[in-house]
């Protein structure tokens, strides 16, 4: 592997060590990533906006701060001088934020989203804003306004969405990490399909202020990264109470990175009897089953758990998200006033949201309470629930259906079905790479945990990651 490839696919911690030892400067690192973006982004279409001038200016500031810290002996945040990206539905002051839409193509916020402010305040260097499904309302990242994001492992395949540009940029070595959003799997689905780590925190753990909303009951902000430790570093930075977001929690923010160093001898994993393991691509099943056996070798006790309302939750979550999305677009004045500027797909979903009754919405909330109670009961017996992240590897771009166990299933319900229960309940969930298909497409394993217990999820995911080299494999560009 060439030296620039080694740097492009290095973790945050590896890059931070090189910066600390003056093996490379923030400016050199930024120039390396900008050069790779220029060469490789036309093939994957991961970026909607590249902020080259701002990035180089930020790199110069980072170098000065690193020099001051060296002279004073002062510690530094591991993100100082690290080039990153942001999904394009997170406000960035003075930088356009389109949410992947035609309607907001010229929107330039006057403030940063809280997650963006924290990231940039720690000295991270923003390379640009990443491609996404229009208004985050989809899971393929097929975008008629700005072009489809393409999977670096196979460019005729989807990245998954809606944070598909972020996942593609990391997988292709175009940035070190990214912050995305997840309403029905939008961090975990593209992470699984692109072979990286994606973490959806507990609802309220990370502020959503400055995030263009989709369905506020299910919206989460979280990290996409190259490794579990990197995800822990990012979560530790962006988590915490925010007076600008009334849904954000005042719970203490743990040292998530430090938690990875604690011994993990025995832990209990719950394998759901219902839904998750019923319809799977044979290669996804093989990889996920193998991952569970490996976890058993490293201390896991696996037992079956029952979550009877999982099947009911899929329709209930759909009803709630349809209603909330349509209400939000109406409140913003976009719909139906600008109906012609939406893609057909998103416009039809907004129209469907108008038909959801109050009774359907409230019934959905009742299902949510029942399912959350079932998860709570399971967590009295286990430390995390283990499932595949997606039932199939990355589908072809433009495919409406995918074959699963000899049956054709719609791409959207297939991909959302594994991930949405964690949004519906607000529970934390992480996706980690657990193998590849014979065609070389990544497969992801999902862990779902107790509310505000991201530390346990990260420790289990890290225990698995340390024993495998999946994250060391990279697509040929």
CATH class assignment: Alpha Beta
Rg calculated over all Cα atoms: 21 Å
- The shape, in one word, is globular
List the strand order in the largest sheet.
1-3-2-4-6-5-12-13-9-7-8
* Percent helix range: 25-40%
What's the rounded overall pLDDT mean? 96
What's the CATH topology name?
Amidase signature (AS) enzymes
Helix-strand pattern, N to C?
HHHEHEHEHEHEEHHEHEHHHEEEHEEH
Distance between the termini: 12 Å
Instruction: Classify the beta-strand content into a percent band.
Output: 15-25%
Q: Largest beta sheet, briefly?
A: 11 strands, mixed
Query: Structural class from helices and strands?
Result: alpha/beta
What is the count of β-strands? 13
CATH-level-2 architecture: Alpha-Beta Complex
Q: How many domains is the backbone divided into?
A: 1
The CATH homologous superfamily is termed Amidase signature (AS) domain
Short description, anyone?
The chain has 477 residues and is an alpha/beta fold. It has helices spanning 3-8, 12-20, 26-44, 52-72, 114-121, 164-171, 188-194, 228-238, 256-259, 282-297, 310-331, 344-353, 358-378, 411-425, 454-465; strands spanning 47-50, 83-87, 125-130, 177-182, 197-200, 220-225, 267-272, 300-305, 384-388, 401-404, 407-410, 429-436, 442-449.
